[in-house]
């Protein structure tokens, strides 16, 4: 039997401006920490996912791999949604936005859409099925039914972290994007000062290393060393996106805590199962190897 959901009853000291908001903090059986914020006055529905991994986990011969992995997760398609454009199109259709960033020890992905789209879709759906409440029909719909835009986006978004494809044909494009970000950084005084601090730091600490990645570290060196970049991306993902106690998810919107909890359970409960299966398999293989001599 799987572990139950663990809810944390923490005292949250809220400013008067936040008294309308309702919060819930709990851990799903897969170890994903979930923080929900429900606010009837909220005009945006949003979701973010943060993983406790970043540039400090870059392999020595592929600096920038964590950053490239962040790019590829949102751009490289998933087993469920093989066309990587679907997410971008859905976001565009709903006037939303998305982004992601990688720091030394953290990688964060997020998207948001205005509530107006949800309200419109709700009104249409409510007309069709003769209901007028906002919360009765978004859970449990089959694919192809009138799934609300936010839930549809949630499903696509989370699929990237369940079974990402890291399509080989898109890797070079994302390396170029990472390289242009690095080129842009070269003209930013703040970034230059940051890199100067990095260069002055202890050479044995990972902070000293280059972390953004560029054509040299992600394309030229791997080619010279015959490194398969796609394999490295998959390995980095399986090693570091383990979910159990290293990932946090936040949902925020005008929906009730009850509905946001249902979204969390429905879409995030099986997150990490591919990594667990793979790591178990790897553990078994290494046990076999160790016991063979
Ligand atoms: Zn980037």
From TrEMBL:
Residue ranges of domain Peptidase M16 N-terminal in the record: 36-185
Keyword Hydrolase included in the entry's annotation: yes
Entry GO terms, CC: cytosol; mitochondrion
Pfam families named among the record's database cross-references: Peptidase_M16 (PF00675)
Gene Ontology molecular function terms on file: metal ion binding; metalloendopeptidase activity
InterPro entries: Metalloenz_LuxS/M16 (IPR011249), Pept_M16_N (IPR011765), Pept_M16_Zn_BS (IPR001431), Peptidase_M16 (IPR050626)
The keyword Transferase is annotated on this UniProt entry: no
UniProt name for this protein: Peptidase M16 N-terminal domain-containing protein
Natural source organism: Saccharomycodes ludwigii
Lineage: Eukaryota, Fungi, Dikarya, Ascomycota, Saccharomycotina
